[in-house]
Predict the 3D structure of the following.
Amino acid sequence: MNKTAINPNEEKEIQEIIQTMKDFLSKTYPDGKIKRNFHPKMHGCLSATFAIRNDIPDNLKHGLFQDPSTYDVWLRFSNAPPKIGSDKGSSGRGLAIKVLDVPGPVIEVDPLGMNCQNFLLTTSPILSAWNIPLYNKAIKAILKGWKQQLVFALNPKHWRSLYLTLKYSKKHDNLLAQTYFSGGAFSLGPDLFVKFLLKPKNPELGYSLEKEKSENFLKDQLTADFQQASQGFTLCVQVQENEKTEPVEDTSIVWKTAAVPVADLIIPKQEFDFGQRNEFGEALSFSPWVCMEAHQPVGAINRARKAVYKELAEFRKNGASV
């Protein structure tokens, strides 16, 4: 069940993805001050708490969700595109969560030097490149310029991926009003596969600043919101019920199973736009594989992400010397 033969060229494809990204970063940041390949534009790094609920169904009580507990977390809000641009256009937005000092065992120790559980979420419910060969081609198209993009776009085999990318790339007025999704699937204990989604406590929030939207209005709005009140989200899991309607390997399929609440993310009022915090947020790294063993990522795309995220984080940390 849920097992697919691994493509013998998988490792070769993954290494090509990594090299394409490194080449792009070296060209984009020749001074060696390298930002992330995707999600380089940070809107804010915020502190928060993550409270595991006490009403979780018994079959979901695994790993982080085994007992009601409260953890400190770091959050990073961002724009997805590889080049930093205006907030006014259609795009994917990201919310990465780092839950600190979780109980072990973990698959990878966080670079902060402690056991953490990372959740990497975006405003798209799917990952439009649903296998590693397609992921490789899409990355080359995105990062290698218009000629590569034209070649990719003219191939009918790529049209569905392009359609899905455009479908879920949207304009947003307020980062705190969005639902965020894990895209890929994860284990939940020994027998379940799930996807994570984060629902806003205040989905009615919009753009409330009494001035025209700036190129960085999402950060302006985030700053204003946290000067006024605390905010929050609810983390939910969607449990795989059917391998065909909730596939693990095909990340382009939206899972439609019920969203079961498992934790509350509480973000207090705070000032976050200052030098030391911004430097800390830029230095943070996130990977779906920095996680408890009970929440191991599954599927080919997640296997690719393991090597890609790790190598690119080192590349960014050490400059182009890696």
The longest helix spans residues 10-28. Strands lie at 41-52, 70-79, 93-100, 116-122, 180-181, 185-188, 192-200, 231-239, 259-267, 297-298. The chain is about 30% helix and 20% strand.
